[in-house]
Amino acid sequence: MGDFKISTLNLTKKYSNSFQLFLMVHSHRVFRGFFIMLLLFHMIMLLVPWIEIKIPAWPILKIIFAIGAYLWPFPTFDMLSEENLYLRQILMKTLEISVIMLYTIDLLPKIFIWRQNVLWKIVNIVILSQMMFLLPVSIIAYDKVALPTDTMKLRIFSISFCFVIVCEILSIREQKSLRFLQINQRQQEKQRQIKQKTQEFSWCEIVKHDSPNNCWIVIKDKIYDVTSFLQYHPGGNMILDGAGGDCTALWYSYHPSILTKQEPPQQYMIGKVRDYQQYYSYDDDFYQNIKEEVEQMIPRNKWQNHWILFLKGFLCLTGYLACLYYYINYCTLLSAILLGFFAAQADVNIMHDGNHYAFSSNKTLSFLAGYVLDLSFSTSVVYRRSHNFGHHSCVNHLELDRAFDTTFPYIRLHPLQQRFWYHKYQHLYIWIIYTFVNFTDVFGTFDEMQWFSNYPCRRGYVSKLQVFLQIIVKILWISLTLIYPSIKFSYKIAFGMWFVYNAVHSYNYALYFSVNHWTLEAGVVDNQNINQTNWGKLQIQNSSNFALDSFIWTHLSGGLNFQIEHHLFPQFAHTRLKEIQNIIKEKAKQANIKYFEFPSFLNALISHYKLLKILGSQDKI
């Protein structure tokens, strides 16, 4: 936030008032809404055959159109005859000029103002130039070509072009406008007038403020009302996943080091948490130094948008949809195995990065990537709450890590958990339990929506639309994978293949996560022995890597073999984690912190097996 203020103030000094006005217009919602309306109009005009309408031409109009055609620098066509005006051509020309001018306004800040590298700006200049030439040419071609079959390429181009621009509109740049700074200043002044002294609130009060219209978050022991900031947050609605809860770990792990060096924006601070318990320390420079070195090596704007990740995502999603079609129409053993495998691959390679906002710097694209989990019939909103907040924030912490709650009493994973007689067999029956992981994820959706994080009274925000969509998702899941195959083939075949598909999906998903934290080498903590441990050190001590030199395991596991690096930098595309591994390993060595990596996946799996056997037969390790 502080860095943004400085850069914005420098921008206002460097550029004239016209540029300031330019930025204000560019960020205005009415501008973007009008832009979208024009694009939809453009699509309609290119898809619908318009009937030619002629209207009488006044002499003054003829002069205006003649001058306009002379001055317009791009290809054009005649809009009037000696006696009449062609209404269709006038509408299309108006649309052409409007789209070109509006898209120019949309791109100019990216080219001349936003801080980006030269190559990135050149690409946008090329896009703008091509658009200014191709749009008039496309409209002329549409006007002259008579046969509908000859206009097919033009129509496909127009639809694709409009889709690209709509995606551009949805991309995040609003928080970089001067309007953002002005709102902050007004909010700051308002807070000064209203809050003359710090108030204290209990958790039972804080958790009530968990909606888009009333959003509080906690960072360390301070409470921030970020309701007015939500629409400008670079991470989009990610804040709502922690609404009414403790977001300290997310503040430090997702934001630039230059921001985490200082306090969050104080104009939003409204009070403190009464009897706040802070289990981890964030004051040690260990994690801060690692972040600074990684940011220096690889700028934050290059952490996502990796072409290998995009290629993997396309292949995994295509493979999953193809296998789903194959399974629905043939319901064979091979189709069930392939569907389970590709569903898991889509989860670990697309969904996991998307829900960590590591897939793309475009928040909308990452958001859609996260929703691939819903495409495989689970739920991304539950995953973000239980995984990002209930696991990453407190890894292997008995009282807080959601993983311990969802596995006990069936599996004993912590020495302080109660040991039952059947736990001495857990190293044997665990392989049966793992076949049902996907069933519990899918069928437990609505139960999880009632209790997301590990603070006993925190709820988190779930819209009615999310609940409705999950009902639709579950109906589709049962209908497509079970009911329809039962009708088309038989219920015996359908149920058998349905179980195989879910079991393969479960194994391909669960085993990657189990060998990262539930091994003899990974540490565990609890409220009694946490003792203000540095949060960054805890991520290294309580995680373990495997098969770091294996190209196959890196891509099959979606980069989960670089678990330590992923926990320290969750916003980093998994296809690039290998680039920062040496930095983290060296820093851990200098700080005398245990950094463990298994030479292979099999070694990690054996260690997981041994841990289960020991915890099942004795109270302490």
UniProtKB/TrEMBL annotation:
One of its GO terms (biological process) is unsaturated fatty acid biosynthetic process. Residues 198-274 form the Cytochrome b5 heme-binding domain. The keyword Zinc-finger does not apply. GO terms for molecular function: heme binding; oxidoreductase activity, acting on paired donors, with oxidation of a pair of donors resulting in the reduction of molecular oxygen to two molecules of water. GO terms for cellular component: membrane. The keyword Transmembrane helix applies. The chain crosses the membrane at residues 30-48, 55-74, 118-142, 154-172, 333-352, 364-383, 428-446, 467-487. PROSITE patterns: CYTOCHROME_B5_1 (PS00191), CYTOCHROME_B5_2 (PS50255). Keywords: Membrane, Transmembrane, Transmembrane helix. PANTHER family: DELTA(5) FATTY ACID DESATURASE C-RELATED, FATTY ACID DESATURASE 2. This is Cytochrome b5 heme-binding domain-containing protein.
